[in-house]
Write a structure and sequence with these properties.
Blueprint lengths: L1 E8 L5 H7 L6 H11 L2 E8 L3 E8 L4 H12 L3 H7 L1 E4 L1 H11 L11 H16 L4 H20 L9 H12 L7 E5 L3 H12 L4 E6 L2 H10 L3 E4 L3 H5 L4 E4 L10 H10 L5 E5 L16 E5 L4 H4 L7 H23 L7 H28 L4 H23 L5 H15 L1 H8 L1
Parallel strand pairs: 5-6, 5-8, 6-7, 8-9, 9-10
Antiparallel strand pairs: 1-3, 1-4, 2-3
Length: about 425
């Protein structure tokens, strides 16, 4: 029984690399099943966001190299290139890493509110794929519980800053008056929903939501008095858009350099502000080469989101203590379930031995009753036989070893068998 947390994030890999290692929602179930089939992983879950792609695994014997090789092969990457930016956490460190991620301590945005929900989604998908068992499942539950405690008992989540908030804050720096600006939002997921909310609160003149399905776009647009269109309508909307913010799960770019060039001509080269939050990217990087376009990726938002994080640093120390406690509690639970030396295994063995002794004495009692022995005599023999079997080993241990060992044994026996008398003596 061993745990492994392996992956890349915004601190170890650029957007160029992260978009090549990202998993789409459609890939996850098949990828999880393949991961368990082709590596020594008995249980597995995958967390894939714009800032990180991580694998959480339960294995009999740790084999990080085989998992890295599988990850490289799956995404058709060079293994050495992947290894150069990947991190690997094992056992206690893996448990601690998962808890820190869920609590928002490992995020670009300290205390990021969305990451816990994303981790819960990773768990749900793994359950759907059938790759989560009792051990990894218990670790996820312990992780969620610890993250909740961090968020409720510390100030880590106070005044949380999201990527969506950072994108809108950057727009405010470029456009002094958002009331005159029009925004095009590409996608209709949680992040774009937050962007729409912030833009609406800032009084943006007009908001358009473009999505693959018009129904999903309309549901979001109705909340903020926005307009809903299909992705195919984006070229027509670009010419009117001062702000473009995109966050989809598309594997291919949605917005190319040619479409933006044509929109700029229609706009008479009036500047356009664009933020591509998606990983893989929705907007071709070449768009950033255009003179009148200010294109930012999710990594460019890092300087913005640092605002206010200093005030929450004091809460980090409290959060780390809570996480240490969570790690210790979970590892104790794991130790109890070790096949050798674990208390659960010992309890099972003791119960099995007691059942064997009970069966022997009952069989003997039935034989005596069949011979016509007095029932009281048989019951007395039954109770005596069970008592002797239960106490024989204990009594033998009291006479073994030196004085110190015998004293330790005597104390253990006293605690186990004389609890009633010890408690009454305290009264």
């Amino acid at each position: 029984m061993a745990f492994l947390a392996l992956g890349i994030n915004h601190k170890t890999a650029s957007v160029d690399v992260r978009e090549r290692v990202a998993f789409t929602p459609e890939q996850l179930v098949e990828a999880l099943q393949q991961l368990c089939r082709l590596t020594p992983s008995r249980e597995a879950a995958i967390l894939s966001t714009c800032n990180r792609s991580e694998l959480y695994l339960e294995q009999d014997q740790l084999s990080a190299d085989e998992v890295l090789r599988w990850l490289a092969d799956y995404h058709r990457l060079n293994l050495d290139d992947l290894r150069a930016c990947a991190y690997i956490h094992q056992d206690n460190d893996a448990v601690r890493h998962m808890m820190r991620v869920a609590a928002g301590l490992d995020s670009m945005i300290l205390g990021e509110p969305q990451i816990l929900g994303q981790m819960k989604s990773a768990y749900a998908v793994a359950r759907e794929a059938g790759t989560v068992g009792p051990l990894l499942g218990r670790l996820f539950q312990a992780t969620f519980s610890t993250a909740k405690t961090v968020r409720t008992d510390t100030a880590i989540g106070e005044n949380p800053v999201s990527v969506a908030f950072a994108a809108v804050s950057l727009a405010k720096q470029i456009f002094a008056d958002l009331h005159r600006s029009q925004a095009l939002l590409i996608g209709a997921g949680e992040t774009i929903s937050l962007v729409a909310r912030h833009l609406h609160d800032q009084g943006v003149k007009r908001i358009v939501v473009a999505n693959r399905t018009l129904e999903r776009a309309s549901q979001l647009a109705e909340q903020f008095g926005a307009h809903a269109v299909l992705l195919a309508d984006i070229p027509q909307e670009l010419a009117h858009s001062d702000i473009v913010i995109s966050s989809t799960a598309s594997q291919l770019p949605i917005l190319g350099k040619g479409a933006v060039e044509r929109a700029l001509k229609q706009r008479k080269h009036k500047p356009m502000f664009m933020v591509d939050i998606a990983v893989p990217r929705d907007i071709e990087p070449e768009v950033g080469e255009l003179d009148d376009v200010y294109l930012y990726t999710v990594d460019d938002l890092a300087t913005v989101v640092r605002t206010g994080q200093a005030q929450r640093q004091a809460a980090v120390q409290q959060a780390e203590v809570i996480i240490d406690t969570g790690v210790q509690s979970f590892m104790q639970w794991m130790d109890q379930r070790k096949p050798v030396g674990g208390s659960v295994s010992l309890i099972q063995q003791v119960n099995a031995q007691a059942d064997e002794w009970r069966a022997l004495e009952i069989a003997r009692a039935k034989k005596l009753l069949a011979k016509g022995e007095d029932i009281d005599t048989v019951l007395e023999a039954l109770s005596r036989g069970l008592t002797q079997k239960m106490l024989h080993g204990t009594m033998a241990e009291l006479h073994k070893g030196g004085a110190e060992e015998r004293a330790q044994t005597a104390d253990a026996v006293s605690r186990l068998f004389l609890r009633a008398s010890r408690n009454s003596s305290k009264l």
